[in-house]
Amino acid sequence: MGAFLSKKMNLRHYQISAIDQLREGFRNHQRQLLVMPTGAGKTITFAAIAAAAVRKGKRVLVLTDRIALLNQTFMAMAHLRPFNITDNPYAELTIGMVETAARRTLPTPNLIIIDEAHKGNFFKILQKHPSARVIGVTATPLHPRLSEFYTNIVEPTTISELINEGYLSPVAPYQIQAQLDGLRTRSGEYTEASQFAAFNKAKIYGQAIDHFDALGRAPALYFCANIEHAKITAKAFGDRAVSITSDDPHRYDKLRAFELGDYQIITNCGILTTGYDHPPIKTIGILRATKSVPLWLQMCGRGARIHPTKEEFVVIDHGNNHTRLGRWDDDRNWTIEKKDKDIGPAPVRLCPKCHAVLRAAATECSFCGHKFEQKEKIQVKGHAVFVEKSNLSGRLASTCSVRELVRAVGEKRITHAQACRIIRSRGMPSLIEFAEIMGYSQGWAFANYRLDKSKIEVKLR
Ligand SMILES: [Zn+2]
What pLDDT is attached to residue 75? Predict the structure, then answer.
């Protein structure tokens, strides 16, 4: 089937592999997740799956959650002559909105394909059709209830593989360390109001302009905290920038002017996050903070399309998001198992000279050549570790980096148990960093995370 499909539809090798793995997976799993990064061509892939099923006489239902995606899906599958579920729910291939399908009584299809499955709005439909096979498609399988419904995960490629194979643009990530006071969290995300208060500051506008001039290239897309912030940011950049906001009747004219090159920079709040596709974009500016991995990857991903005018794209992050969520091109190791909410990203290290975001183990900046300060090598339980040279005696443990705490344990300035407790209170990313330095497994970090996380203070001996 793979060879036939690839000839017929020009599928890429990992798209064929996705189809083969899913078919194999259906022997043991009724519901499977297909995880593909944005830009990997998930619609083409599930259109091929739907076509193959229809050819075998199966009935297929494809569900999306937004009108824009519904239209895109119709276009991508036009050759298969799909019907809207509101017109003919009995057709071989039907496409519909999740909400519509949940309200209606539909004949049970053989296969249900759910786009954007991480949004978790499809539970009702799966409960209505318990016998259907299901493929949930997503770039970020993070909804806490996914493990109730899906038992297998198929991840045929990753962002880093897509970059290596030339399907996505490499990234040059920068983080301009920001003092973000007063960010408040509601329902797991920073509130719009507290973000606006933190970012609507002369200093940050100044940094945004300076660093765009130093690191960025046009065309550039900036994400802001709210509509007002998007407008003020565009004004701060001057004539070269325009804002596009949902309350502006001329927004599509402005978007077209940006795409034609009349403006170097476009600012927005949430309007250009999902589905906006302008391959020449060379800079993504982030003037907001988020706790959401899907949102973070989507914002950065707007610059990831390849184009003859660029060799890479730049992310300029003013919201400390890399520290919180990792680099866009990190491998994420998705699993279907339920897990602690905040599994940390791979730890990063910031270049003090050029602001580049590097992997934690880097000893030299791959962007500007800066060499990190000489480290001293110490032994911790048989593992050689590099740590910053600094005098630890008398320091408060709360002011120490994870590496400094590791060294403090090695020098018996603090007990191992005390260090673990302090690192637990800082959250999963610190715990994973600690585990990596000590040579412990990730499982150790997860197990440890379940223990007491309350803060304590210890003065180092
Ligand atoms: Zn550097």
Answer: 87
Query: In the chain, which segments carry CATH 3.40.50.300?
Result: 2-157, 163-359
CATH architecture, range 163-359: 3-Layer(aba) Sandwich (3.40)
Query: What is the reported pTM?
Result: 0.76
Residue 411: per-residue pLDDT? 83
Output the CA 175–ligand 1 centroid distance in Å. 11
pLDDT the model gives residue 225: 97
CA of 358 to the centre of ligand 1 (A): 9
Mean pLDDT for all residues in the chain? 89
Q: How far apart (Å, rounded) are the C-alpha atoms in residues 408 and 280?
A: 49
Most confident of 216-225, 391-400, 436-445: 216-225
- Ligand 1 center from residue 214 Cα (angstroms): 13
Average pLDDT of the segment spanning 208-220:
96
Q: Which residues make up the environment of ion ligand 1, defined by Cβ < 5 Å?
A: 351, 353-354, 356, 365, 367-368, 370
The architecture of the domain spanning 2-157 is 3-Layer(aba) Sandwich (3.40)
